[in-house]
Amino acid sequence: MYRFSRQIFVEIKDAVDPSPDTVSVPEARRRILAACESTIERLARDSRYFPKPARSLFQEIRYYFPITEQARVYYTVERYIGLAQDFIRDEIERHGEGVVAPCRATTRKGKPCQRTPLPGREYCPSHSHLEEVVLSA
Ligand SMILES: [Zn+2]
């Protein structure tokens, strides 16, 4: 799924020009990539309960771009979010609900686990013990 957020980021990162200069360009890029990734994550996790994802991402990042670039940024966001939505829809049709969301566990380094859960499960095989805890609670 992260290829979609990565593609958005790659296409718009050179247009970053925070104004007024409250953040540096590298910091603005870091925030933009994080916003793209969390949008894609949320889309993968519950696409049906996420109205207007492209607009919501654009609202979050538009201030890091000059006015003259905002239309292009919006179309880029809209295009890749649309592709991500198509991808999710296809995956759900093919494999059933829940299979495209990554494992819900956090790794020892504090990052979200990127592995794919077993069909119908929320955790990957190495974190399946967490699911049992939730189910028995
Ligand atoms: Zn996992």
Which radius of gyration do the C-alpha atoms yield? 17 Å
Q: Indicate the structural class.
A: mainly alpha
Number of domains: 2
Strand percentage: under 5%
Mean pLDDT: 85
> What's the end-to-end separation, in Å?
31 Å
Q: What is the 3D form?
A: globular
Discrete helix count: 5
Number of strands: 0
| Small-molecule binders | zinc ion
Helix percent reads: 55-70%
How does the major sheet shape up? none
Give helix and strand order, one letter per element, not per position: HHHHH
- Spans of 5+ residues with little confidence (pLDDT < 50)? none
Would you kindly provide a written description of the structure presented here, covering whatever features stand out?
- There is one protein chain.
- With 137 residues, this protein is mainly alpha-helical.
- It has helices spanning 2-12, 25-46, 53-61, 67-95, 128-136.
- The model has no long low-confidence stretch (mean pLDDT 85).
- The radius of gyration is 17 Å and the shape is globular.
- The structure holds zinc ion (ZN).
- Residues 103, 105, 113, 115, 123-124, 126-127 line the site of zinc ion.
- Zinc ion binds at residues 103, 105, 113, 115, 123-124, 126-127.
Topology of helices and strands:
Blueprint: H1 2-12, H2 25-46, H3 53-61, H4 67-95, H5 128-136
Helix pairs in contact: 1-2, 1-4, 2-3, 3-4
The structure holds zinc ion.
The site of zinc ion has 8 residues, from loops.
